[in-house]
Specification:
The chain is of the alpha/beta class. The protein is built from eight helices and 18 strands. The protein has three domains: about 110 residues, CBS-domain (Roll), CATH 3.10.580; about 130 residues, CBS-domain, CATH 3.10.580.10; about 100 residues, Ribosome hibernation promotion factor-like (Double Stranded RNA Binding Domain, 2-Layer Sandwich). The strands form six sheets. The chain has a four-stranded mixed β-sheet, covered by helices on one side. Strands 1-2-3 form a three-stranded mixed β-sheet. It is flat and about 80 Å long. The two termini are about 25 Å apart.
Length: about 350
Amino acid sequence: MEVKDALILDADEPLSKALNEILRTGTAVIIMKNRSYLGLIDDRNIRLGITDVSKAKCEHSCVKTSVLYKESTILDKLNAFLTGHFKALPVVDIKKSLPLGLITRIEVLKDLLALRLIPRKSISEVMKTPAYTIDINSTLANAKTKMKELGTHRLVVLKDSYPYGILSTFDMAAILKPKGRRGERFITEVDKEGDMPLSELLREGLTVVNKDSQLEDAIKKMIEHTSPSLLVVSNNKPVGLLAALDIFKEVLDLSKEHIDISISGLTEDDQQYHEDVRKTIMDTLDKFSKSFTIVSVSLHIKKNKSVYIAKILVDLDKDRLSVSAEDYKLNDTIAKLSKEVYTLLNKKKGIVKNRKKSRIEE
């Protein structure tokens, strides 16, 4: 897991320190209280109405989040980001409970690529459609009304009829991301939140991808431009939106389906048992689908003069299991193999469970 350095502040420190770091990095700041993790501050947590950030305390703007560990699986990361919709999440030392840094959605996308967990799909199969638009001269109130009427969470902002940026409900959750400051005070020329021009809230930067491109290509573009959302176009016209969270949900949904298995080495006489062998192994692995990310499974069977020898490799998110078994009959060999796989995975599950229990008790 790639962990980014993060500024760690005490709950009593002024919000201005957090704001400076957020504007510099575009991510978040970790807040501690009594030497324990308290929460995060990002540009979506800072409420309107704070006129002097040098006097406001960090504690009043921080939000409690899920935490991740160096030992967290890819499923842990996906679920954590989907639960809170945060730009970044803290990575904490599993023993000392001290923050090590931050992980953003971009780092999770990198992990998905490295683990080869990206579905072989086109962008059009995953993107949210249609791409609703709004003019940049509209106000926050206009955008809220339009989102509610259309039942959407994102709008493409147009400037002179051309796509200029993307606005989401999370950007609008009573948050002001200032483009400028006077000293340590927010600058705003509006008296009412609803009158705020969209240019004040607009997410900076716009990355475009063609709807016929593959999902993997889109992820590489997100990583290259450090952009967790893309505008999808066809013939240079907006047709949809693709966000990292859409990809996370797609991978999670697919992880709930049966993992396929590669089986080799069966003789012509034993090919008729291919499906029975596959089902026996998959029934065992399915019992652990919620506990581990099973990336791939390969099984090789070799028949000697008197015995069958079977060897299975199970690639997990952070580990690889290698198990072998042998017996005089094929079905007995596979039964033994399946039992060994179950024993090892169950033991591994127990270790993970005990670690989580220890963290709670601490």
